[in-house]
Amino acid sequence: MDYSSIAELFALAPRVQDAVRAAYRGDSDADIRMREALHVMRESVADGMQPDLKSVSGMTGGQAAKIDPEKALGGRTLARASAIALAVAESNAAMGRIVAAPTAGACGILPGALFATEEAHGYTEDELIDALFTAAGVGRVIAMRASISGAQGGCQAECGSASAMAAAALVQLAGGTKEAMESAIAFAMMNLMGLVCDPVKGLVEVPCVYRNVIGVANALTAADMALAGIVSPIAADEAIDAMGRVGSMLPEALRETGKGGCASCKLRVQ
What we know:
Blueprint: H1 6-12, H2 16-23, H3 30-48, H4 76-93, H5 109-121, H6 125-145, H7 150-153, H8 159-173, H9 178-191, H10 208-227, H11 236-249
Helix pairs in contact: 2-6, 3-4, 3-6, 4-5, 4-10, 5-8, 5-10, 6-8, 8-9, 8-10, 9-10, 9-11
């Protein structure tokens, strides 16, 4: 049971997570490893929430702890998702142990989406693991059809891909249809298309950790639109292919070389 498109993946089995499991070709340890990945994600949240956390460069760290969900303009779930995404990204910048989902630069988006909605809606760990399998399937398609590398396709290939993976996982958790899931993937990809990779000082810190926050917010809104019955006018596979083409058009200065975009700006805070 193999697939190279969202359409093929969704056609393989009634439940997307089961189709992804089948692609492991009988690997009995797949669920064990996915559960371990979920536990590592939880640990990286706790690590990143420490107010005294600092990256080696000192540019980031300790900021996730400042977000107060009770005072947030966007509501508690979005604030928690933002804080968790930022915490995991800051943990990564401080050399903590994270799950690359699909990359280290975008590591906070999927945990932010999963754990914030778990808190809000009471999802079980088994449901979260099913959601991780679905996210993994979506990520595999993106990697095969386009890219998940910032050096190859810009930050759209990292945070954009992670956001699409998280959007699909959220729709599944909420009991949405495959059609809604497909629209959520497309919305998430379209919304961050063209996002460049421009790390300051060549480090995965600025603006990277903050883009994890916008990535999880994008996933939540993409899922909400799809669950409301809004259908993407562009198919998910078409959006993924477009992202790949846009990535190939980006100049070298905007593909993780530290030359253009934010990388060419002076920092106010060192």
